[in-house]
Amino acid sequence: MKFIKYSLITLLSSILLIGCNEDEFLSQTNVNALTPETFWKNSEHFDYALNTAYAALQFNTVSGFRTANEMALTDLAKCDTWYPSYTTYKLFNYTSSDPMIQNKWAELYIGVNRANQIITFIEGEDVDMPEEEKFEVAAQARTLRAFYYFELANNFNGAVINTKYYANSDSLNKKFNPRADVISQVVVPDLQFATEHLPTSWSNMEAGRVTWGTAVSLLGKAYLYDGKWSEAAAEFKKVVDSNIYALRPVFGNNFDEAGEHNSESIFEVNYSTSVLPPSSNRDWVDNIAGGNVTPSEASSLEHSFTHILTAGGFNVVTPSQYLHEMLLSDEVDPSHPINAAGETHSQRLTNSILVPRFYGTYFNRVWEEDNGDTYPMGGGHSGYVKKFTRWNTGISNLENNGQTSPINFRLIRYADVLLMYAEALNELGNFTDAITYIDMIRERAGVYTLQDYMDNNGGTFPKLNISKEVTGAPHPLVAPSQESVREHIRYVERPIELSFEGHRWKDLRRWGIIGEALDRRAVDEQWRLDNAETILGQPPLYIGAYIIQNFVEQAAKYNETVHKYYPLPANEVQTNPDLL
């Protein structure tokens, strides 16, 4: 069951009033109103407040439809050139006034402010709660604050540090702190505190609250992003050794409603279409524009992914040929039990993207109808995104024509932790153990492991990220080493396993290889442009009517000093004179 933290409108109004300067209001007191004098007294009050801090996870730049705009920046996604996601994001034409930039900053700081109120008021002398419960409440709030600050620091290369609640908004005008300070002064201490005071699990009715595993995983991730390999590996090892988490046998269970809060889930954002029904306009269901600071209980991400000829989506992003071809090369191990029915494509392909000549159904449609009609792939596409969509149901079952969805968004799952652990081990020089954890991911998917390849190829494994279509040759074989395993993690395993889960742009940024990745895609794309007449509609990709040109222009446009991090929002710079 989903953690019911909803019905927030009245509550949020109360909390937000508490956050205003009382001098701005009439001096008469409404004895029935919630005020700092009547609120923040007991477990119920703090539970209400925690609900609002969790609700900020639902904002559209955190886990909603605007995350697709960031996905558009990556090498895993293509955009139609007539669609705004191409001109704005693929070509780095967003500005400091762009809605994604301004909303991301504002939405994350709403989360910070809500957490700060809890952390501040839980210390009150007249709070009637057991000490252990106070620590648990504070630990939840500090985990959420750490997450919001981690996102701020890594998207904007820093943030304004504010760890106290202030009634007077003038106190919020502070100078910008560099990324390293945000991580060391806020994120790490918050998570260290949380690991000591959070439970390892909650009851089903409270599923969705952060746990010990959430805090430890985030702490390991913070160390990993800073290149502190030993510290990161130590935290990830705690998660692995805890035996709390396990990979789900069926990969696709991680992206549908039936598999929510499963054994692989470590940090998950709850969504529902049955509580606080959303508006039919996805731009408003989880947006802060116009003063709407209450996020929707329904996700708007599905609408960004689904095919325009079925669920009415706008296809903000579609899979790049790079991702498509790698998923085709996700080679099925026929001896694996999950492939007993004769599967020829991996779980990761069939549950991540839709490709031409697919088998099974997509929104209850088959590739070829009895009358011979085939399912249309629009324009120059070779695939569509399946993750976090209800592709295995019919259109008539979708609310608002697929504009909103009840599917939870998974921020961290165990597979991600295993791959981050493998990365840390490899950077420490232990590429042999790194392969062990990579192969846990591959074995679950029912594909050949790196060890399988090495056993059958004289101790070598293939570079699966090299295009066989472009080179006209089999994948080159490489011996295991720190460098070859690093390449595999960066350009094969994390892209395939975690595509369209919101990690890729952050990964490329932290590795410092955005330009390199885009240049690689540009080379392959140029080859396809030059050879369009011979490859359109042909295997292995069956690309549609033309080659969509994205990466040639994007790679040429990328400037690391300008585009690696987002600009500070224009409205924040205007209102906070101390920001610059």
Strand order of the largest sheet: 1-5
Mean pLDDT: 88
- Rounded to an integer in angstroms, the radius of gyration calculated over CA atoms is 24 Å
CATH level 1 name of the domain at 43-77 and 95-244: Mainly Alpha
**Mind summarizing the main beta sheet?**
2 strands, antiparallel
The CATH architecture name of the domain at 43-77 and 95-244 reads Alpha Horseshoe
What helical percentage do the residues reach? 40-55%
Overall geometry comes to globular
Unreliable stretches, pLDDT < 50, 5 or more residues? 3-32, 281-287, 289-293
Helix tally equals: 24
Number of strands: 10
Task: Describe what this molecule looks like in 3D.
With 580 residues, the protein is mostly helical. The protein has a domain at 43-77 and 95-244: Serine Threonine Protein Phosphatase 5, Tetratricopeptide repeat (Alpha Horseshoe), CATH 1.25.40.390. The chain is built from 24 helices and ten strands. The protein has helices at residues 9-18, 43-55, 67-71, 84-90, 99-121, 131-156, 179-197, 212-225, 229-241, 282-285, 302-305, 321-328, 347-350, 414-427, 431-444, 450-456, 468-471, 482-498, 504-511, 514-530, 532-535, 551-557, 560-563, 570-575; strands at residues 77-78, 158-159, 177-178, 265-269, 318-319, 353-354, 384-385, 409-413, 461-462, 477-478. Helix 20 runs antiparallel to helix 22 (551-557). It starts with 8 loop residues before the first helix and ends in a 5-residue tail after the last helix. The relative contact order is 0.13. The model is unreliable at 3-32, 281-287 and 289-293 (pLDDT under 50). Belongs to the SusD family.
